[in-house]
Automatic annotation (TrEMBL):
The lineage of its organism: Bacteria, Pseudomonadati, Pseudomonadota, Betaproteobacteria, Nitrosomonadales. Keywords: Cobalt, Cytoplasm, Magnesium, Metal-binding, NAD, NADP, Oxidoreductase, Pyridoxine biosynthesis, Zinc. Belongs to the PdxA family. It comes from Nitrosovibrio tenuis. Pfam families: PdxA (PF04166). Binds 1 divalent metal cation per subunit. Can use ions such as Zn(2+), Mg(2+) or Co(2+). Pathway: Cofactor biosynthesis; pyridoxine 5'-phosphate biosynthesis; pyridoxine 5'-phosphate from D-erythrose 4-phosphate: step 4/5. Substrate binds at residues 159-160, 296, 305, 314. Homodimer. This is 4-hydroxythreonine-4-phosphate dehydrogenase. The keyword Transmembrane helix does not apply.
Length: 351
């Protein structure tokens, strides 16, 4: 159930979502793409995507005038097709199907404006509602700027946490790239708060979700998950910290007892050895900058952010809003293309 305090009914949509069930014969999943922070590169990426002949069924959720203005700035052609209809037409080069959500005020490339923070969340809520109702099969998100949303007086720590709140779920962040799947026990927390946030219950919940989605969405029948320790050398038998002994090992032992294939806790400095990675289907890192720098070093610009643990499918890019590149034409759409491809695969697997 969606539980946003602002309520999805407040999202101003010129044409209502079609919430009637779609026939199972649809050739391609319908993917909702949110354009992200309007001052960043999200709109640019959507317009770059419009130039490609991609075999996907895309609906971009954004302000149509914003995209038209940015296309003119980039000197790229753009035909805007209002959604709906057609609901089952594949993407074609030179055009975007747009579900229009209006900006609160003008958007200038590279210049953040807190007045448009609610617009950004409206696009996310619209995509989530469409996925929840069955209108869309998955949502793909361009980057947002966390600080400007907070500056608008709205508590926001990231897509993963926000969607988890909307759907009253327990979401898990996963990055896929460089031959790795890396998940996180904690996400956007100050480092000083990480140890206190890691509990046996948290680890058991997260690992159960990871295993379930590896089976159901990634079609891995018996996933093998490597778990990083929190401390250097995984605590060195308690000499460098007791979190492994008191929290991580007991949680892993309980899950092993019910049949989960878990390795660890392992020292993070050797966990990512290429020869060892071949034996894992996924890694659980204890905090954001323990696992993601390694993956992004191996795959930046082509990695995909996947949210596990939700009743919907959501993928995203592996980078931020890159305000300095907005409107220049220099943004690389590689990660967004990969996120669209991943969303389509996960949607097909779910069928």
């Amino acid at each position: 159930m969606l539980t946003s305090n602002t309520g999805l009914r407040k999202v101003r949509i010129e044409k209502p979502l079609n919430t009637s069930p779609r026939p199972q014969s649809d050739a391609k999943p319908i993917l909702a793409l949110t354009a992200g922070e309007p001052a960043g590169i999200g709109p640019d990426l959507c317009i770059q995507i419009a130039q490609l002949d991609l075999p996907y069924n895309l609906v971009v959720i954004a302000d149509r005038e914003l995209l038209q203005e940015r296309a003119s700035l980039l000197r790229l052609p753009l035909e805007i097709i209002d959604y709906p209809p057609p609901a089952n037409a594949e993407h074609k080069a030179g055009a975007l199907r747009i579900l229009h959500i209006p900006l609160a005020g003008p958007a200038t490339p590279g210049k953040l404006d807190a007045a448009n923070a609610r617009y950004v969340l409206n696009t996310l809520e619209c995509a989530a509602e469409g996925c929840h109702s069955g209108e869309f099969d998955a949502m793909v998100t361009a980057p947002v700027h966390k600080s400007i949303i907070n500056d608008a007086g709205i508590a926001f720590t990231g897509h993963t946490e926000y969607l988890s709140h909307l759907m009253n779920g327990q979401a898990v962040m996963m990055l896929v790239g460089g031959g790795m799947r890396v998940t996180l026990a904690t996400t956007h927390l100050p480092l000083k708060d990480v140890s206190g946030a890691i509990t046996q219950r948290l680890l058991e919940q997260k690992l159960s979700i990871i295993r379930q989605d590896l089976i159901a969405r990634f079609a891995i029948p018996k996933p093998r998950i490597a778990v990083a320790g929190l401390n250097p050398h995984a605590g060195e038998l308690g000499h460098l910290g007791r979190e492994e002994i008191d929290i991580i090992i007991p949680a892993l032992d309980r899950l092993r007892a019910i049949g989960m294939d878990l390795i660890g806790p392992l020292p993070a400095d050797t966990l990512f050895n290429p020869s060892k990675l071949k034996g894992y289907d996924c890694i659980l890192a204890m905090y954001h900058d323990q696992g993601l720098p390694v993956l992004k070093h191996a795959s930046f610009g082509t990695a995909v952010n996947v949210t596990l643990g939700l009743p919907i499918i959501r993928t995203s890019v592996d980078h931020g809003t890159a305000l300095e590149l907005a409107g220049t034409g220099e943004a690389d759409p590689g990660s967004l293309i990969a996120a669209i491809q991943m969303a389509a695969v996960l949607a097909e697997n779910r069928k």
